[in-house]
Amino acid sequence: MLHDPLLYVAIGIAVGGAAGALFGRSLGPNAQDVRDADRIAKQKRDEADAVRREVDSHFEQTAQIMGEVTKAYRRLYEHMAKSTQRLAPRRTEDLVKSLGDQRLLPRDISNRELRNDSSKRGRGR
């Protein structure tokens, strides 16, 4: 059964067909068009990857800057809140009472920092 000539013919046709298809594709009239299309597709993929990397970098840098802005704004807000409590305590108390639970700084933080600031001023005299 291993020496069946029909088997050899079938294998030869399969191998020959595959080789012919590969050979014909590489030497056919459309071979240059196929290579050009592959080259253009690779170039477009590379360009898309470059744009994707640039966009990723942009958003990474934007997030970093926004984080810095947020920290700076928080420092500014805390500075303004402490200064307002120290420089205009009566108006600050009225404002805190009017805000109720809508305060941006919890009472314990603002009172603690106000006490720390007043004790520092007492020592400096």
TrEMBL record:
UniProt cross-references to InterPro entries, sorted A to Z: ZapG-like
Keywords attached to this entry: Cell cycle, Cell division, Cell inner membrane, Cell membrane, Cell shape, Coiled coil, Membrane, Transmembrane, Transmembrane helix
Keyword Transmembrane helix: yes
GO cellular component annotations of the record: plasma membrane
Listed transmembrane segments: 6-24
Endoplasmic reticulum as UniProt keyword: no
Short name of any one Pfam family annotated for the protein: ZapG-like
Subcellular localization: Cell inner membrane
UniProt record, GO biological process: cell division; regulation of cell shape
Family as reported in the entry's similarity comment: Belongs to the ZapG family.
Protein name (record): Z-ring associated protein G
Organism per entry: Halorhodospira halochloris
Lineage: Bacteria, Pseudomonadati, Pseudomonadota, Gammaproteobacteria, Chromatiales
